[in-house]
Design a protein that fits this description.
Layout lengths: L6 H13 L3 E2 H6 L7 H9 L3 E6 L2 E6 L1 H10 L13 H19 L3 H4 L12 H15 L7 E2 H6 L6 H12 L4 E4 L9 H6 L1 E3 L2 E3 L1 E4 L2
Antiparallel strand pairs: 1-3, 2-3, 4-8, 5-8, 6-7
Helix pairs in contact: 1-4, 7-9
Length: about 210
């Protein structure tokens, strides 16, 4: 039997509760800056607190009914002694207690309070899609002109049509400031990289660089 979730693992459960829907694992790392390592992911799955789904090399997470019960049990609970240091744990449990008081008084269920995060508007024009690509690249690149893997780039383009993104990358590759190239050492590529590649001139390209 797996041990009780740690404070960090419970924090992941709270994020999934707040999202109130299935989310890609990359949202935890890219948006929330919270890393759910494989041992913790498997532990929470084995405890029946989360559902884990894999599709085309990507991992998706969702809170189970038991996971919801685990989270609800923390609302109004005392701050665990081991997380009081630094104040962040105490602040979290103070907020949880305040939410519980409101929901109890308003007779509102937790499922009514925590609603799925609205999906970002889907870009529909080539100009909008290119702007999204450039923004995602800027977030990922260490410096202008630095190489960024298309697999990482696509993680930031959830909701966009794959064909439209590919068309935008092909068009951008024809400009002087943009390069879409194959990985020089293809032994380093995993299935995720191959799945994210775009075909240009009968060649799979895995990397993007934008000079300006």
């Amino acid at each position: 039997m797996a041990a009780e979730p740690t404070f960090l693992e419970k924090s992941i459960l709270f994020i999934l509760m707040a999202e109130a829907q299935e989310i890609p694992n990359t949202l935890l790392t890219n948006h929330y800056q919270a890393m759910l390592v494989k041992p913790s992911r498997e532990k929470l799955r084995d405890l029946g607190l989360i559902r884990v789904r894999e599709e085309t090399g990507r991992i998706y997470l969702e809170l189970t009914d038991l996971g919801w019960k685990q989270c609800v049990a923390e609302f109004g609970a005392e701050t665990p002694a081991r997380v009081r240091a630094g104040g962040s744990g105490s602040a979290l449990y103070a907020v949880l207690g305040a939410i519980k008081r409101y929901l109890d008084q308003a007779d509102v269920s937790y499922h009514e309070f925590f609603l799925p995060t609205p999906k970002a508007p889907v870009a529909s024009t080539p100009t909008e899609i290119e702007a999204r690509i450039r923004t995602a690249y800027g977030d990922l690149a260490r410096e202008p002109g630095g190489w960024v893997g298309l697999a990482d780039l696509r993680d930031r383009l959830d909701g966009l049509d794959r064909g439209q993104v590919d068309a935008a990358l092909v068009a951008m590759n024809h400009t002087k400031s943009v390069r879409v190239s194959p990985e020089s050492n293809q032994k380093m590529l995993g299935q995720r990289d191959w799945d994210a590649a775009v075909t240009i001139g009968n060649q799979s390209r895995h990397m993007l660089a934008i000079d300006s």
